[in-house]
Design a protein that fits this description.
five-stranded parallel β-sheet; Rossmann fold; alpha/beta; elongated; 262 residues
C-alpha cells in the first residue's frame, strides 16, 4: 500500500496511511464514502465505537418522581431516546396510550418509531434534522405537556429553546453515554483520528491518558466536538461540516488536496 504524505508546513510532512474513525463500520464499507476515500488515496481506515449507551434502570428512573402517563407528548431527538423510552415504559409496566403525541427531530427517527407504535400522521410530527426546525412544530402545540427523554450528556441549547418559548416540559435521563473500553487499540498506530461527539474525545482521554498528539491529525464533526478537542489540549486539524464540505469524508479529501498543493 502506498503511503500518502501531506505537507503541514515548509519542510515538514506527515504520512497518512492509517485512519481511525470513532464510529461503527458502515454496513457496506466499499460503497460508503469512507470506502471511496480509502480507495482513492490508498488508505487503511479502521472503525471503533469510542462510546457506548447504557440504559437507566427503572429503580434509578423512579428517583425522578416522574410518571410517564402525566405527559401528553414526547420529544425524540434520536433512535436511542425512542428505544429507551419504550424500554423503560415496559420495565415500569406502563402502557402508553394511543393518544400520546410524538415529536421527532427527523423523518428517519419518526419512521423508526413504527417499531413501537402504529404510524399515524395525526400523532407523529417530525422536523427535518435540527432541533430549531422541530421547535416550529412544538410551538404550534403549546397546550401539550412534553417529556424530553435524553442522555446524561445532551445539548443545553434544546432546553434553552424550550424555556424561551415557555413550553411545559420535563427533561429526564433515560440513558447514559459512557466511554468504551479501547484497551485493544494501539492509538499510536494511527495517523488520523476522527471524532463525531465530545463524548468520543473524552473517551480518548480516559482510555489513553498519556496520549500525545505529536504528528497525529485530528478531525472533528460539529462545533461542539471541535471545542472538545481544543479543551482536551489537542490541535484540531480538520473540521466539518463547512460550506464546501458538508460531510467528514469531503472535508478530509479537501484537506489532503490542499496540503498536497502546498
Amino acid at each position: 500500500m502506498k503511503e500518502l504524505f501531506v505537507s503541514l508546513k515548509l519542510g515538514a510532512t506527515v504520512k497518512i496511511k492509517n485512519i481511525l474513525v470513532s464510529q461503527p463500520e458502515p454496513a457496506d464499507l466499499e460503497k460508503s464514502p469512507y470506502g471511496e476515500l480509502a480507495k482513492n488515496f490508498n488508505l487503511n481506515i479502521d472503525f471503533n465505537k469510542f462510546i457506548k449507551i447504557e440504559g437507566v434502570c427503572s429503580k434509578e428512573f423512579r428517583q425522578n418522581r416522574l410518571q410517564l402517563l402525566d405527559f401528553t407528548a414526547v420529544i425524540f431527538t434520536s433512535r436511542n431516546s425512542v428505544d429507551h423510552f419504550f424500554r423503560l415504559a415496559k420495565d415500569l409496566r406502563v402502557e402508553i396510550p394511543d393518544t400520546m403525541k410524538y415529536f421527532c427531530i427527523s423523518e428517519s427517527t419518526a419512521f423508526y418509531l413504527q417499531k413501537y407504535v402504529q404510524y399515524r400522521k395525526r400523532k407523529i410530527f417530525h422536523g427535518k434534522q435540527s432541533f430549531e426546525q422541530l421547535m416550529e412544530l412544538i410551538k404550534k402545540h403549546k397546550d401539550e405537556k412534553y417529556l424530553l427523554p435524553c442522555s446524561d450528556i445532551h445539548k443545553a441549547s434544546m432546553t434553552k429553546m424550550l424555556d424561551e418559548q415557555k413550553i411545559d416540559y420535563e427533561k429526564a435521563v433515560f440513558y447514559k453515554t459512557l466511554a468504551s473500553d479501547l484497551s485493544h487499540l494501539d492509538i499510536k498506530d494511527y495517523d488520523m483520528l476522527i471524532f463525531f461527539s465530545p463524548s468520543g474525545v473524552k473517551s480518548l482521554v480516559k482510555n489513553f491518558p498519556e496520549f500525545k498528539q505529536n504528528s497525529t491529525l485530528i478531525a472533528a464533526f460539529g462545533p461542539t466536538t471541535g471545542k472538545a478537542v481544543n479543551e482536551a489540549g489537542l490541535k484540531l486539524n480538520i473540521s466539518a461540516p463547512t460550506k464546501t464540505a458538508p460531510s467528514m469524508t469531503m472535508a478530509i479529501e479537501q484537506f489532503i488536496h490542499k496540503m498536497n498543493k502546498k
